[in-house]
Batch of 4 targets.
Target 1
Amino acid sequence: MGNGGSVANLRVQTFAEQEFFRVKAEDGRDHLILPEILSLRSLGEFKVGFENMSTMYELDHDHDGRVTLAELQRFMDQCAVLEARAGLHNFKRELHAQSTLRMWRERRLDHDQGASWLADWLCRLLAEHSSVQLEADVCAEYTEPLVGRESLRLLHQMLSVNMVHGVTFQGFFDLLQRVGEEAGLLQLEDERLDDVLPLRVVRMFCIDVMRAVCGRLTAVIGYEQGAEADGGAVNTP
């Protein structure tokens, strides 16, 4: 049994390493960035759903916006153990539930600072991906950290903005650019800034979204924990 476990663990570790180097675009970088993370494949038949925010939270273990090989191997090990315990059909639901509960507890999502922390973490993921290179004269006059269009497209995908709010990516991008202009952080007449947004504007949007997410999670998780503390059950027959 011990040898069987060792063989299974080696298989998971090997698969994680193969995936890491398959999706990593730059030889000199020792971590994955957001689009590469979203390109990862699951081991075997269970489907992880890397675009899920709580799954991403579990994968990026130190929450620096980067995923190292060690973090990916750790995550894949957890998935293999969970799949063996929960079964193939319940795996994805259990993974998302466990990751969401851990995120809610660790980051105190029932308090306002939880939403701010999540927004900052999302911005770290975007900043690691965004490689915006401005012309020298723009750099001299524009000191705001910037996020590129493709990074924002991934944020739009991760937060399901189109599905939840019915806003296309172009509408989403145009709206945030308008916010940046009204806040005095962006000049839309400058064509050199057509495909970027100030990171500060993106953070403002993320905080608003995360406050709504935290409110929903607190309502659900708080109710369930209250029912358990009272000795009752959430789902009554």
Target 2
Amino acid sequence: MADACFTARATTREHVAASIKKLTLPTTDNGQYDHDAATTFIAGIHRILRETYNPGDPGNGMFKLCAAANEIASIKATSVATAKSVLDDAKAVAAAASTSSSIVPPAIDSRADAQDEADRINLINQAVIGAKEGAAEAITAKVGSDVTDAVLKTADGSDLRSIDSSKKSLQPSSKAPIARTPATSSPNSSMSSNSHLTSAKKSPPTWSSFAPKQAG
């Protein structure tokens, strides 16, 4: 299973990115996206994430990335399990469940079992991170960096933030049409794009493709 950890991130990222890029996001005769088109696009993303295999929750796939903070949305690029961390966690859980008259043994107490569990956790973590990266890349390719930079770049726009700072919470906030105009792509970033969304009056977009992830 340890070997699978090295491929889970790249494989899931490639699958999610390719699938979302195949979705259509048509424009009107005036070169605008309307609310119905955005809603259909978002529903397609939700479907793809639900159908993307999640080794930790096969029934829901990666759909929980679309929801508020939860066990997979909170997984970060730095989330790594080791045999020691698994043993420590097992001891802590057992200690919390124990009483003065009833000692609960750790569910995992051997290094071999702890390493197996660490490999399982890391496989899940890497797959989830890959799904986040693939969705961010594909959504930016569709709607443009001007929409997604507010979350995916630092405040001064000079660098990309970690994928950990966003979640795929996609909801159109207005039925007003949104214009499509060219955007500059970045050859140094996997978040590059060919178009972006701005409102017809050149004000900031009313349709947000990303929302700040809740802390914790």
Target 3
Amino acid sequence: MSLFNSNNNNNGSSSPPGDENPILTAYDQFVRDTPLVTRYILSGLGACYILSWFGDLSYALGTIPYFCFHPRWEVYRILLSPFICQSILSLIFATLSFLDMGKRLEHSLGSTAFGYYLLLMGICTNILFVCISYAVYFAKYPDGVDSLLWNSEGIWILIFAMIATDCSTATLTGGDTNRRLFFITVPTKYFPLALYALFVVFGGVGMGELLAIGIGSAYGYGYCHRYLKVSTVRCQQWEDSILLNFTQRPGWITGHAAMGRSAWSEEYNTNNTNSFRFFSSAPSSTMNTMSSGLPTTTTPASSNDNISTTTTPAFTGDGYALGRSPSSSRQRPTQSSEVRAAMLEAAEKRATSSGDVVDSGV
């Protein structure tokens, strides 16, 4: 009988760690450690790469000025083109680059502001790209038709904008002063341009990425905040209305939990060293707590008390905090010897009188 029970217990228990699926375990850790917007972007890149097997997404979604406006009016290209990924090498390197800085920026800004930031960087870059293309067209008219067929696309537009914002913010707040580009140490302020130059040598980027560096740097230094930065109140309004469903999902960072510039502090870098930064040897910035922007420290609650912190009443006296038992509140002041003596004398009198009543009744 005991053998039967032990078998049932073994069957009902979870499988040992050695039998776990490593792919599922890695994905669960990815979901647990990665904020929501960053996770969605990386998942979308993988899906976009798979879709590229069946068609040319560059022609269908790329920001080609001739198609964006007259006569086609395919304005959606300006919004969607930054999320195109059609190369396996680009997918791998983009994932390694986007993962760390996506976490850092999303913890710094909050998920709502970070999503707005990505859309802002992509839209502003592509609008500026279209304007430059038309300017070249009119400057070389009628020989500038080729400029209307230029293309701006790819996740590297957002990555270069994020790198520029990351470096400019680190420079502004006195963070890391140098970053390593493979075996070369580059000042943080010029790191985005050095990386862009390296990509140009290998022929992997175009004008869109250079424009993204300029816009990302301007945002990091605060030049765009007056006109383009979304306010905390507006983010809260969006989270309470159109984004309410997303705020209830694991990994969403609300606006009040965002870290701000503390995401670039040395203390933050020291306490978070789990993620990998592909283009830099600076300390990484993975957050260990997904439910809030900062790791919190709470006072352990007692076994019979559901309140995790003790609040000292603002008034004086022998009362106790509302919602707490007297034993868990601050202790009453020690009573004086005179009061104890009076209480003992009264108890003795009550005992004596009760004894007299019993004797008379007998």
Target 4
Amino acid sequence: MVRIQIFQFRTTSVGLNAYSGIQTLVVAVLFALLVIQRDTSLKTIFTNRLFCNLSFLYSLGMVSIIWSALPAFSFYMAFQNLVFLSAIFYLASLKDSFADLESFLIKSSLLFMLIALLGDIYRYGFSIIFGWHHLEIGGVGAMLLCYSVGEIVYCSSVLRFDPQRKKLLWRTAIGGFIILIWSTSSGANVSSIIGLLSLAFVGKNKTFKIVAFLIIMVFTLIPDSITSVLPFIFPGKSSIGITSVGYRMHLWESLWELTRQKPILGWGYAAIERINQYYAIDSHNSIIGIIGGLGFVGGFLLVSYIIIAFVKIYKNRYIAGYTGLFGGFMCLLADSNTIGFLSSKTSLLTIAFFTIVVISYFYQFYPYNNSYDQD
């Protein structure tokens, strides 16, 4: 968590400085702790089908030190993702019940957002609270909203809804919604809509399906109605800004021109964004960022990983826990097309995505038994 917050300061330099030094030290200590404890998390993420392609992706990122335009930087950025994935796996492995795993997902996400907010207050003062725009916190809030709504809808229609869990999920859903609105993130807004629609069409709740269908029909039959809601989905943006995607289109065109020069293995993990004519720390699209950094080999690993994770969660979508995970996964997957949190940097959304996948692995060992008291 400390490393992620420190990263917020590192926006213009890929060289060695005080902040990058502290980052490296934190990751190294975390890795050393995992090794000292002889933890098997690293082994599992390389051998288990759910994680292996993602682990191979970041291993390729470490190997890209050989050809990267920013060798040391590429190695570090890929290495830290492997360490954080292992650390999250280790922390989740300490939980011994469904309730503990769900609580870990929700409370760790809230804690990460709080740390990020405190970091913003430290840098910009309390006035930031009244004019706040935080893409990543908004994205995590959207994920929590989708997860909670998925579980509320599922449990209300299939299982006896445990009062304690009902209270937790409702509070999380309301909190996620407030955070989403407060963050004024267009990407998070769109991602939450995609996550909720995904839940509507794959879930068993007929009322949820009908409501979603009616909303889509209204927008289809009355196109002008879309115009009236766009300001709420894209706060602070004009219609021209919405359709053109602004600066990002120029960035993607620049990245694609560089990608064509090295299409197989790319320019090195997390490097292409920082060497193109529009310097950036974020490709604003994980797939574009990975293909540019690790070529079509890296792109294949990322896409195949996403397919494997999707199939795993989708197959279990009618099992308590997995319904919410499906909504959260689809939400973050959509958000990865606006923020390159799987390709350009390690952020709150990276950790949230890793947590979703790790929890989907452990839920199979601790099925929900209708009562938190019995867990």
